[in-house]
Amino acid sequence: MTAFTALFLAVLALGTGLRLWLARRHVRHIVRHRDRVPAPFAPQIDLAAHQKAADYSVAKTSLGMASLGIDALVLLVLTLGGGFEALHTAATSLVGDGLAGGVVFVAAVLVVTSAIELPLNLYRVFGIETRFGFNKMTPAMFFADLARSTALGALFGLPLLLAVLWFMRESGSLWWLWVWGVWTLFQVAALAIYPTFIAPLFNRFSPMEEGDLKRRIEALLTKCGFTSQGLFVMDGSRRSAHGNAYFTGFGRAKRIVFFDTLLARLTPSEIEAVLAHELGHYRMNHVTRRMLWSFATSFAFLGALGMLRDAAWFFDGVGVTAPASDAMALVVFFMVVPVFAFLLRPAMAALSRKHEFEADAYAARQASGRDLVQALVKLYKDNASTLTPDPLHSAFHDSHPPAAQRIARLEQIATAPATAAAHGA
How far is CA 94 from CA 91, 163, 168, 265, in A? Predict the structure, then answer.
């Protein structure tokens, strides 16, 4: 066993063990608070709804724990167990060790890992989501979506992969910089074409009907200085009872999308407040910052791969014969390195929660903080989001602040003007 093998096993065990421990804490915390609705929510959320959210969260977390164990086992089988080597040998014996062999190898890894994940996804949709009344999909719809996703992945992913492998082979020591440029352009292009060409393959998007709601939203957009390609309603109810709203694309391709389930549950003023929150992310440059962070992260990862490309200790340490082929190096690096990056998650989650607080504050200034509170409480109830997450688990995993903290901040903002006026008088 090499020193890096020992380090890899230790970090994998530590990361998996820590995540399982956090998940168990989360489950115990939810169960401990299952029989009492938190006081701030008691007027609007009854005990039955609170218990449903608790049971739903426990079921999802338990499935996540099983997925964690399976993921760790699969990674060990693929690396130290010789799985990568076996798939690579099969691919190169089939089509040779050139670009075609690399593409077949990467495709084989994706097929194997996706096949392992499929039973868990089926159980999530037709077990958990169905049991709690959220799933509207049929098996035929599920597999049709899977087929479309696979076809899109092949249509866009295979040419991208060919380009990456070609640059790795032909561009010398700075190949990774060329690959980063190609990947960045691909991400930007995907953002541009997704609203118009890809999303409609899975859902129907209808222009929002004329009326009071549309007028309110258009007035808010004008107030916030936001221009878009249009307001659309998505038939989210075909697949799920969950509700949401979002904007997608960039530049002139920006679209604002409301789930039909969201429009059915919230009042116009509450919908306006939810949209103001989403616009807050745009106006405060959160979207741009996340894009730049994504570009910076891929730059750092590819730069690290450029340095490790010929490092025999790295590949030998994870069970891959060095020197590794370009395709092998690419796959191994992007499956192994995240094992070492897990401890960065609390910092990223904290930054995301900070952005959510900022978007809430923006919404309270542009619309109504009280309406946003009412909308959030309804969405917590309708989506069966737990009101009592374990604080430590939340710090590691949650991109949004816990419900109680978020509502308390909004109520503080809503009362601040009245408090200031009282002091002034």
Answer: 5, 21, 22, 55
